[in-house]
Queue: 2 jobs
Job 1
Amino acid sequence: MDWLPFNKVKPYTNAFVRQGNQLLLGYKKRGFGKGLYNGFGGKVDQGETFADAATRELQEEAGITAKLEHRGTLLFMSPEITEAAHIEVFYAETFEGTITESDEMRPEWFAIPSTDEKHREIIQKAKQVDAVSGLRFIPYDEMWEDDALWLPAFLSGHHFIGRADFGADGRLQKWWFALKS
Ligand SMILES: COc1nc(N)nc2c1ncn2[C@H]1C[C@H](O)[C@@H](COP(=O)(O)OP(=O)(O)OP(=O)(O)O)O1
């Protein structure tokens, strides 16, 4: 498969909040990515920086504010869209406010596997529960398919850049990812 062509990019943000060995994800209740778990984020408004938009979207979708650190860049294409999605990905380990469900996202904590090997195990065998916290491990089977390619390294402290092209069937067709330490 060739890389899908595009002439324009649309800017988005995505923010992941971690507390110890737990990761806050949101279950998308409507719109783009409905039915999947993801970080919190959305379109960048006119005149906003990516960082401003990431802070606003986290507040709107999860009810919290956090000092977000930029950690990754993702370009996403599919035959369903003519503008590539350019997503800047952010990270925080502390937050303020009370986590609150919104019209768009239902926040939920998940257990983070402690090793790369455990990440691989839960990617292959979904719906496992962490014996220590009692929480379900990160639900890779209910997330964008490309997330399994970069989230383990992202959570280990790496910065990343990558591109993911999806097919008309909604499955990942072609991708590349690079990590920075
Ligand atoms: C394809 O790979 C993706 N992986 C991840 N982790 N996140 C992705 C991927 N593709 C899109 N996203 C993210 C980027 C944004 O955070 C959301 C989509 O934003 P949305 O369309 O919901 O934007 P809003 O401004 O919140 O929408 P409303 O206009 O409905 O408020 O998905």
Job 2
Amino acid sequence: MQTSDPSHTQHPGHNQQLSNNQDPATEVAFSSAASAESDESLNIETLNDLASLADYSLLNTLDADPDAKTDGANHSPRQVLSGHYVLVTPMQIENPEYVTHSKTFFRELGFADNLAQSADFKRLFSGDLSNLPHPMRKIGWSTGYALSIYGNEYTQQCPFKTGNGYGDGRAASVLEAVIKGQRWEMQLKGSGRTPYSRGADGRAVLRSSVREFLAQEHMHALGVPTSRSLSLYASKTETVKRPWYSEGSRQKDPDIMVSDAVAISTRVAPSFIRVGQLELFGRRARGNEHPKAMAELEKIVLHLIEREYAYVIDQQLTRDDKVVLLARAFRSRLTSLIANWIRVGYCQGNFNSDNCAAGGFTLDYGPYGFCELFDPRFQPWTGGGEHYSFLNQPVAAEKNFGSFCTALKPLLASNPEALQQLNDIDDGFALEMQTEMEKMWAAKLGLSTFDPVLFRELFTLMIQTSVDYTIFFRELSEIPDNIDPLKRSFYSNSNSNSKELDERWSAWLTKWKTLINGDSSSQSNEELSRQMKRVNPKYILREWFVVPAYKNAAVGNYDLIRELQDIMTQPYAEQPEEVEEKFNKLKPSQFFNAGGTSHYSCSS
Ligand SMILES: Nc1ncnc2c1ncn2[C@@H]1O[C@H](COP(=O)(O)OP(=O)(O)OP(=O)(O)O)[C@@H](O)[C@H]1O
Ligand SMILES: [Mg+2]
């Protein structure tokens, strides 16, 4: 279920603390770096081993909803007026079956691979917490959040029209654990109704769970900060109905209802705090909605710092200085994230503030897609509109950043100097975003500095020739002698004015080669090519690869999912010829405009 928008619409590696006048711009976005450097000997083979790492100390600093039932039976829609989370007992899917797990992430965490198929691990991550060993908790938690669409505050999506019934409608966190020195939160998606389900079923179907699971792993392998995939289990018997496309449909909207198996995927991150979550508390503090509103805002903000920015914000600073630094650090992560999205051709599709992680990583792989035929307005979600389209994501991010700053403001109301700093940081978003984008385009082109004229010409040619975004940049990374190899990426070879276009491409290539040669006098073309191939992936998760994987999964065959996991977790590598022939290809014509493959209206 997407929001019905009327307009349609700490990480490991962060180990340097910032004082108030340092710029976090150089901090490295989180990756697997820290886990690699810490305790390699950790070997988690049983749920008891995992239980020994459970540590809810940060969750315990937050407030639970005082009106919730303490046994976790909070499955009916209601307004949640205060507190940071609601205790929720997940609803296990019926007859769960192992589909897959992330081998890469298991290795990083020190989990033995066979743990994923063990009975008690499966029970926990398919939604049954009833039998967990101490000190694991037998109740999960879900959070409320607010919604802004492209910077505009909404409350209409909440059944009570107040915003108090909006939040995790089908997600519940089940574990906070410190593993190899890194604190992780583990969250089930599709684990049943919560007070925020708004009359919906709280479930996720296998199709959307497979899509999210694969994309999350792929993005990590692409070097793009993201929540991580842990495990995926599907029900052998329980189904729900969703609108979808009939075979061969070219309609914009789904034309049939389909019964899909339900599934639970588990994703993992240092926190799942969203911009929308800060907004919920920011709005309550701004409106003085209850006596604890300001204190709740302060707590969630300090909690966010602790969870996501502890390594970059000095604990000794005053609260207001921390808030200002938080905004600066988030701006830096968010601009870098968006440049990374565009580098790899990713379009989030539904980049509302509730789908924007305050830790600065990718969250919610709903109606996402990877750009194939280059189109600045590429947008796979039929509800997403131009505002969330591929190359408008920097502006959409700026809107989310504005919502983030607005949420922090009540804390700085009596500190005009800090407020001014916050406003300046907000105003500076566009410039920092532009700098990140230029750095990214230069890197894709193997240049040390951005050349606006060369880029503009390329941009026009890419559109006029209809190039495949991924194949084009990868072929360019081979530093070809002439334009023939680049033509592998052209969708419109039979263009009537192709001779003229060829000449323009040749002229462009000559110009580019002059620039790279001037730029890298000390670097050989082989070295430059290797460097470009680390920026320009060869393999990208095209939707028409994913469709057969989830279709086969629906009949119990998970081989294609696992094959895609193998291939898409090495997106920059040269892979065997058979892989290349199958997966390094232009989108076949039959998939253009195909409902459910080229576009989708509902992804859940
Ligand atoms: N089947 C469902 N039952 C209950 N709530 C749902 C369902 N589908 C979506 N929602 C809720 O609707 C809101 C908007 O959905 P959206 O597609 O952005 O998120 P999502 O994909 O469910 O979750 P997330 O953002 O947690 O990855 C979310 O708060 C989500 O929890
Ligand atoms: Mg969402």
